Amino acid sequence: MTGQSRVSDGETDNNNKSESHNNMKKYIASSLLGLACLGATAQAQSTIIFDSLSDRIFADGPIGANPFFPPPQNGDNVRAQSFTTGDVAFTLDSVALSLEPSSGTGGFTVSLYDDSGNQPGTLLTTLAGNDSPGAGLEGPGGSLYTYTGSLDLNLDTTYWVVADVSADYTGNVYGWDVGNAGTTVGSTVGAGYSTDGGASWGVDNSFSYLMQVAAEPTAVPEPSTLALAAMGGLGSLLLLRRRK
After folding, report:
1. What b/e string do you get for 203-233 counting C-beta neighbours within 10 Å, with b at 16 or more?
2. Residue 40: its pLDDT value, please?
3. Which of 1, 40, 180, 199 is the most exposed place for a label (fewest CB within 10 A)?
4. Residues 6+ apart with CB under 8 A from 32
5. Angstrom distances, CA of residue 40 to CA of 33, 49, 197
6. How many Cβ atoms from other residues are within 10 Å of residue 89's Cβ?
7. 89 three-state secondary structure
């Protein structure tokens, strides 16, 4: 009976050690998963990186072609507003524009372009949103319309938000509200305007089209954080080996 009791006690001790090792492994795995979830949560927080919505003046830039307008407004009017990122890279979330009431029935587009000599360059992406903003509204006073899309934004880089009307919708004219040159968030090289469908551009830094840009910072762990995480994982593994 005594021998059997010792064998039973030994088996119990081994089982306890095995259970302890398994619990330690589960703890390490759950801790790493928790850190990953925390990192994802932190990265998912959107922030305003550009805002020119304040200081609105009672004027707007026409967008689209209307043969009843006097030259040069009777051309293919395109409007653009630039914004420059700072020392952090971002992923674009949305762009909100302040637009006037209109009689448009579609064709309105909002796109993001890169910069080419302080004017819109190459198309990067077209955003999703209302293609007839302001329709059915009356009276002065712009309304905010949000257009969404995802695009990686490099640090210290200028981009252009371009508002246009598709060629199939000639006669549909929209208005982008104008404000003073100052911005409450971010920086700009100016506002752009074209009367030939974007073939040529004029740029003016004495005013801004009213716009707000939201984006998520691209999170990159600091070297010290990575080192601490690695040391913690290594220490846990060494502890497991010693207990075996």
Report:
1. beeebbbbbbbbbbbeeeeeeeeeeeeeeee
2. 47
3. 1
4. 233
5. 11, 20, 41
6. 17
7. coil
Regions of the chain where pLDDT drops below 50 = 2-7, 27, 35, 40-43, 226
Q: If you ran DSSP here, which 8-state letter would residue 117 be given?
A: S
Give the residue among 136, 161, 158, 160 at the shortest CA–CA distance from 146.
161
Which among 244, 176, 240 is positioned nearest to 29, based on CA atoms?
A: 240
Distance between CA 62 and CA 134 in Å, rounded? Answer: 13
Cα–Cα distance measured from residue 188 to residue 114, given in angstroms and rounded to the nearest whole number: 13
So what's the pLDDT on residue 244?
Answer: 56
* Residue for token pair 């637009």: 99
CATH topology for the 47-217 domain: Jelly Rolls (2.60.120)
Burial environment of residue 90 by CB neighbours within 10 A (0 to 12, 13 to 18, 19 or more): buried
**Torsion, Cα of 153, 189, 63, 154 (10° steps):** -10
Token pair belonging to 160: 């252009």
DSSP class of 72:
T
Tell me the one-letter amino acid at 219: A
CA 204 to chain centre: 25
- Domain regions of the chain by residue span: 2-44+221-243, 47-217
Would you say 191 and 206 are in contact if contact means Cβ atoms under 8 Å apart? no
